[in-house]
Design goal:
Blueprint: H1 6-9, E1 14-18, H2 19-27, E2 30-34, E3 37-40, E4 42-48, H3 57-66, E5 77-79, H4 83-96, E6 102-107, H5 111-114, H6 117-126, E7 130-136, E8 170-173, H7 180-192, E9 199-205, H8 206-210, E10 212-216, E11 223-226, H9 234-245, E12 250-254, H10 256-260, H11 264-274, E13 278-280, E14 295-298, H12 305-313, E15 316-320, E16 341-346, H13 349-352, E17 358-361, H14 364-374, H15 382-399, H16 413-423, E18 429-432, H17 437-444, E19 453-455, H18 465-475, E20 481-486, H19 487-492, H20 497-503, E21 508-513, H21 518-526, H22 555-560, E22 565-569, H23 572-584, E23 589-594, H24 619-631
Parallel strand pairs: 2-11, 4-5, 4-6, 6-7, 7-9, 8-9, 12-13, 12-15, 13-14, 15-16, 16-17, 18-19, 18-20, 20-21, 21-23, 22-23
Antiparallel strand pairs: 1-10, 2-3
Helix pairs in contact: 2-3, 4-6, 4-18, 9-14, 11-14, 12-15, 16-17, 16-23
The chain binds thiamine diphosphate (TPP) and magnesium ion.
């Protein structure tokens, strides 16, 4: 006798839907709640259709748009131009909504899906929730190999989508419709858990997407995923408090977790109560407003002198929501006090444990409040705070010339950043991810609100900026959203300009044209590699290298061809005018700024470990190697 399956016994409490339709209907009913605020979790689906999803999930999205079932919430479809980009858009959206809301992405099988792998890695590394729905090969194997199928002669269940496994926080493949039920529930748990979140990937074989099944109606009821604020365990809090009380030169390092947890007020109260200076990472800048007397700014490889001096001297580092990347620790050279210890407040035990810290596994806001209360009456020595402020004032004097016009034909990009920082409102958003810009911005930008500074620096992925501007604008329509895009980055992923035009989203794209890679060029030169292969030049008949004339590539004309307004400027004064016009416009605008490839950049005080060849015939490399070996001396584990 065959055992009846749950769906068959449920009678009228089932709904017959395809897997694609069930996914859409389920996603439209999901909500999050934090601090009493309940909102939709998945606000829409970006997608690019192919044979893998056009008749499955694509049909379901169409049906939702033109003929929704009674009680089915809407699930708007947005069309992207490149699958990697649409994941970036979703990440930017989720980050702007403090990880409480996000978007889904559907791609066809094969290249459409693997195009999303880079986006998945970025989301997982940055700990930002996105739901990826790559299509997959036939579960039935009836037509193998389907167009774009990887064939593994040793294992028929291996597909290209297995490439998502290491870059996803949750990975599943739905071979049979009924598997969808536990899978969707598990996926939502991971998406909404601050400690686990990242890319969540559910692969949907193309035949299964179109297969009908009697799903239990209860699957589609409205669900609320409560996003908690875990509080510190009392004993852990006590240990952390004891460490802080015994410190004389403590610093806080605020990371992205402080922003996603919306812990700014708690951080400010903690700094005010304890007098501990606050340094920030790329993801954490703005957690404490730049005008706060204890906000010292960026620490680490691209950090400022004041923050790095305090980090070098610190006897206690309190990490709040930070992963301690090599940029933050200056490749393990930032903290030079031989007795330095760490207290790490992090919702994820993995991060809290770094550098042999006293672990406080808790939500940033709840943890900061608990620490402040437990420390009541205690303050860091007054001279410590005074010294921090004096160091910061000295740094500001030192970098003031960065914002003034330089004695050179084209502006330094720092002049443009100074102008932007002044022109943008506190709640406007500046976006960047890669090139020479993150370093300058980390050192110079004054973020006056937690959302203003949107730097993707976990994956530092060229090509994030432009599609991210879409995501931020969708999440914060009231803000001016400015993406700063290097010319190299622009050439890697300009496609989503078409989406900006199609959706008529008013963003401002600032493209810095310096005919190459200022960042990697400078890195190459300082590491003995003579800027080899870092400029955009014609191949020269004489040298045989890419060091001939500049390319004729015309970025403004390229942007104009998408139907976007473009201004081209070569001075900071003209940039200011162009920005004001862009602000006043009702539509998106691009401003192409011709800048100097060689900077100058702000004086740096951090170090970044980029190994130099240990043997070479080139003198430049030999000299760089000698310097590299000397610079390694302070590198250490914090045990
Ligand atoms: C996808 C990707 N490929 C390569 C790199 C390595 N990389 C970092 S910056 C950079 C050059 C960026 O050039 P551009 O956007 O023009 O900025 P600039 O350096 O001129 O400021 C490269 C190749 C990266 N971060 N991301
Ligand atoms: Mg460039």
């Amino acid at each position: 006798m065959s055992v009846p399956r749950p769906a068959e016994t449920a009678g009228s409490d089932t709904i017959r839907l395809t897997v694609g339709q069930a996914v859409v209907r389920f996603l439209a009913a999901q909500h999050t709640e934090r601090d009493g605020v309940r909102q939709r979790l998945i606000l829409g689906t970006f997608g690019i259709f192919g044979h893998g999803n056009v008749a499955g999930l694509g049909q379901a999205l169409l049906q939702n748009a033109v003929d929704p079932a009674e009680g089915e919430a809407d699930m708007p479809y947005y069309q992207a131009r490149n699958e990697q980009n649409m994941v970036h858009t979703a990440v930017a959206y989720a980050r702007t909504r403090s990880r409480l809301q996000t978007l889904a992405c559907t791609a066809s099988i094969g290249p459409g899906s693997t195009n999303m792998v880079t986006g998945a890695a970025l989301a997982t590394i940055d700990r930002i929730p996105v739901l990826l729905l790559p299509s997959d090969v036939f579960a039935s194997r009836a037509v193998d190999p389907v167009l774009q199928q990887l064939e593994d002669e040793r294992a028929m269940d291996v597909t290209v989508n297995d490439a998502f496994r290491p870059v996803s926080r949750y990975f599943d493949r739905i071979w049979r419709p009924a598997q969808l039920i536990p899978s969707l529930l598990a996926a939502m748990r991971v998406l909404t858990d601050p400690a686990e979140t990242g890319a969540v990937t559910i692969c949907l074989p193309q035949d299964v997407q179109a297969e009908a099944h009697d799903f239990p109606a209860a699957l589609f009821r409205e669900r609320t995923w409560h996003v908690g604020r875990p509080v510190p365990e009392p004993a852990a809090l006590e240990r952390a408090v004891a460490a802080i009380r015994s410190a004389e030169r403590p610093v806080v390092i605020a990371g992205g977790g402080a922003i996603y947890s919306e812990a700014s007020a708690a951080l400010e109260a903690f700094a005010d109560a304890t007098g501990i200076p606050v340094l920030d990472t790329q993801a954490g800048k703005g957690a404490l407003g730049a005008d706060h007397p204890l906000c010292i700014g960026g620490v680490g490889a691209t950090g400022n002198d004041a923050a790095n001096t305090l980090a070098a001297e610190a006897d206690l580092v309190i990490g709040v929501g930070t992963r301690y990347t090599d940029f933050t620790t200056a490749s393990h050279t930032a903290f030079r006090n031989p007795d330095v210890r760490f207290v790490n407040l992090n919702v994820k035990a993995f991060d809290a444990a770094k550098h042999s810290a006293e672990m406080v596994v808790a939500d940033a806001r709840a943890g900061l409040d608990a620490l402040r209360e437990a420390l009541a009456g205690w303050q860091a020595p007054a001279e410590h705070g005074e010294r921090a402020r004096a160091l910061r004032d000295r740094w500001e004097e030192l970098v003031a010339p960065c914002f003034a016009p330089h004695d050179q034909e084209l502006p330094a990009q720092t002049e443009i950043f100074g102008a932007l920082n002044e022109l943008m409102d506190d709640e406007d958003v500046v976006i960047n991810a890669a090139g020479s810009m993150p370093g300058d911005l980390q050192a110079l930008w004054k973020a006056r609100s937690p959302r203003q500074y949107h730097l993707e620096y976990g994956y530092s992925c060229m090509g994030y900026e432009l599609p991210a501007s879409l995501g931020v604008k969708m999440a914060a329509p009231e803000a001016e959203v400015v993406a700063i895009i290097g010319d190299g980055t622009f050439q890697m992923a300009p496609q989503e300009i078409a989406t900006i035009v199609a959706e008529d989203l008013k963003v401002i794209l600032v493209i810095l044209q310096n005919h190459g890679w200022s960042s990697i060029g400078a890195l190459s030169e300082s590491h003995g590699s003579q800027r080899f292969g870092t400029k955009y030049r014609m191949r020269s008949g004489e040298s045989g290298l890419l060091d001939g004339d500049k390319l004729p590539f015309d970025i403004p004309a390229n942007i104009r061809s998408y139907g976007l307004e473009v201004a081209e400027v070569s001075s900071t004064a003209d940039f200011r005018d162009a920005y004001r016009r862009a602000e006043a416009s009702e539509h998106a605008t691009a401003i192409v700024v011709n800048t100097d490839l060689y900077g100058p950049h702000p004086p740096g005080s951090g170090w970044w470990d980029v190994p130099v060849s240990a043997t070479s015939r080139l003198e430049s490399t030999q000299a760089a190697r000698t310097e590299y070996e000397a610079a390694l001396a302070p590198q250490r584990h914090y045990l």
